[in-house]
Amino acid sequence: MRLAAALLALALPAVAAPPAAPPPTEARPVTDVLHGESIVDPYRWLEGDAKGALTPEVTAWTDAQLAYTRGVLDNLPGRKDVEARLRELMEVGSVGAPRMRGNRYFYGKREGNENQSRVFVRDGFDGKPRLLLDPNTLDAKGLVTIAWTEPDPAGKLLAFGMYRAGDENATLYVLDVDSGRWLADEIPGKVSSIDWLPDSSGFFYLNLENAKDPYSGQVKFHRLGSHPRQDVRLFRQYTKEENAKLATTYGPRFSASEDGRWGLLGYATGTSTNDLWAIDLDRWSRTGEFIKVDVIVGSESTSRGPILGDTLFLHTTDGAKNGRVVAVDLNNPARAGWRPLIAERKDASIQGVSLARGILVVTLLKDAATRIELYALDGKPLGELPLPGIGTARLSTSQDRTEAFLSYASFNEPPGIYRVDLATKKSELWESPKVPVDPSTVEVKQVFYASKDGTKVPMFVVHRKGLKLDGTNPTLLYAYGGFNVSSTPSFSATLFPWFEAGGVYALACLRGGGEYGDAWHEAGMLEKKQNVFDDFIAAAEWLVAQKYTNPAKLAVAGGSNGGLLTGAVLTQRPELFGAVVSQVPLLDMLRYQSFLMARYWIPEYGSAEDPAQFAFLKAYSPYQHVQKGTKYPAVFLTAGENDARVHPLHARKMTALLQASTASDPATKPILLWVDRDAGHGQGKPLALRVRDAADQRMFLMWQLGMLPKEGAKPAKAPAKTKPGISEQLGLP
Predict the structure, then answer these.
(1) Quick one: pLDDT at residue 14?
(2) Is the dihedral of CA 540, 541, 544, 548 positive or negative?
(3) What is the pLDDT of residue 385?
(4) At 342, is the secondary structure helix, strand, or coil?
């Protein structure tokens, strides 16, 4: 059922018996004095207890807010049709690129209406798929998620992590691939990665010493068949006494070479910087000595890379903001011995490197689109790997072969997995389920606009072909803008009803991201964070000036750091937007660092505990800039009760403050909150919850941007295109 002409009705229909107003929230002001300034927080009690845990009164308040939100959203006309169409689109399956071990191929796949992906293996490329893991059978609600998988070198064993209800607290298990039997080895504590020994007798792993303490990261070794209490700890996160500055960063990361000769120990010194040491694992196995040898320490840069023999192919931003690649002899890793392989590029940023047999694979971003270049191990160029188009690509490689698997997608190209021969650069489509939409009906433009300070910022704009640009088109503007994370083209079938109804989708690639290397990231962090908000506001103004839309028809959306972004522009330019969606957001930037793992992010944002950083945080913190009597647009905030990253207190407090402050009519411009009791930051949601969330957000946007059908209107059926493709099927990209 296509949301076609009927959705173009611009009259704002009345909600069938909606709540007249949100439930009242009692203000209980608390005053903090920070660096001589008094900061009043009227809704501190909505944080919960002193540690942020739920209290009965916060639970009761949340229940009332959820009932209010359901009373509004569930009564909007056309919801059943919209939800049915979204379910149809989200029931299209997905598949991941295979992991190659020996003669076996391991991959994840989700069919149709399955809640979670299952894990399959093939014996040989043309082998029959065999099911190894099905988390859908472990929980009636579909809340159990496979977080990661790692086959052993021979493909005989599969280590994997699982968690429930979005809490990301993964427990490690091991499965015998031949028999399907789960071994007795079971390791709790949010295990996030492992590296097998070459003989599969054990593995190194990273977890938390205390699952409730996000700053207790440790590297340990597990001998297969032994009890976890016998595991040897090789390294742990610094304590405040040892290094106050690094005690609350992301902490350690560890990887081992495929032959087990060397290990690399990294330690995050910021959100995109790390120290790196080499570990002689031969010596460790003989003597038990885990000795760190400096590779690069004390540099404000990112350094990582694969190992072959005694050579580390180091991708580093040290002295090269866009990245470079050097060869490092791990027997003597001093900087003086580094051998340059690939120089920094001015027109593109290196995102990562990997190894295939005799080939160094370099992935780059040029104007927020992927390029993949191949080099000999001595740095000699072997040419570019052809991609299907301008989009986002990832390559899964193995050091023992030139066979690789390419994942590719774009706004008008459904995700596909391609089998690639890197020696010949030839590829063939491996798997790609069909999608019930026609990607050829939309057009994609990349534009560049000027931000407030004149900086040129890229943006992708997507809409139906032939769309008239008369300033009246409903438009959704999305962005992230932080943590060196790049916003690149992706495919979402759920956006096609939006396009069919005349909607425009725009993705802005703001400073703070990684689209143009470290310099681009650094221009949008700490005291320069306002640049990110200025970039987003300029994107909105450009869309209006170019007659794609107007403020009443313009919505913005973002999640996590992107939720902070939408909160900031809401308070800075409320008149510029018709609707705002803020998902799992950070909003009280004067207190964010006190909850969950948020101290990880002090290098990105700063902390109000520091007087200088307090000044620029206070200057933009959304919660502190809500103004009584301002006509705010409609706002939809979401949170997850099990979120291990961003505490739901941000969404709760902001909801209460906006409801009490807005001068807009709550019947037409409400402030809504949805807190999911069975979810965290968004990972691992079952299909039913994802469909509900997608429908909630879509109905909210359609209502506010004048796209709802008139009562009794019947949407038409959309034609399906037979071209194969896959999608992760998110309600919002």
Answers:
(1) 41
(2) negative
(3) 98
(4) strand
Q: Which of 301, 486, 560, 582 is catalytic?
A: 560
Rounded CA gap, 395 and 390, in Å?
Answer: 15
Q: What is the pLDDT of residue 710?
A: 66
Q: Residue 168 and residue 214: Cα distance in Å, rounded?
A: 11
Q: Given this model, what pLDDT does residue 433 score?
A: 80
Beta-sheet pairing, 193-196 with 202-208? antiparallel
**DSSP code of residue 710:** P
pTM of the full structure: 0.93
**pLDDT reported for residue 12:** 39
Give the C-alpha separation, 519 to 415, whole Å. Answer: 30
Angstrom distance (rounded) from CA 627 to CA 684: 37
Q: Tell me how far apart the 2 most distant CA atoms of the chain are, in Å.
A: 78
Taking a C-beta distance cutoff of 8 angstroms, is the pair 570, 580 a contact?
yes
| Burial (0-12, 13-18, 19+ Cβ within 10 Å), 179 | exposed
Residue 92 CA from chain centroid, whole number: 21
> Among candidates 731, 701, 703, which has minimal Cα distance to 493?
731
Q: Which residues of the chain have pLDDT under 50?
A: 1-16, 712-733
Which of the following is catalytic: 427, 621, 681, 727? 681
Is 521 designated active site?
A: no
From residue 370, give the alpha-carbon distance in Å to each of 306, 342, 383, 388. 20, 17, 15, 11
User: Quick one: pLDDT at residue 113?
Assistant: 87
Tokens of 613: 């950083």
| C-alpha span between 142 and 165 (Å, rounded) | 9
Q: Which residues of 56-90 are buried (b: 16+ CB within 10 A; e: fewer)?
A: eebeebbeebbebbeebbeebbbbebbbebbbbbb
Q: Is 354 a catalytic residue?
A: no
Compute the Cα dihedral for 459, 464, 467, 471 and give only its sign. Answer: negative
The number of angstroms, rounded, from the C-alpha of 409 to the middle of its chain's C-alpha atoms is 16
Name the nearest CA neighbour of 389 among 371, 362, 404.
Answer: 371
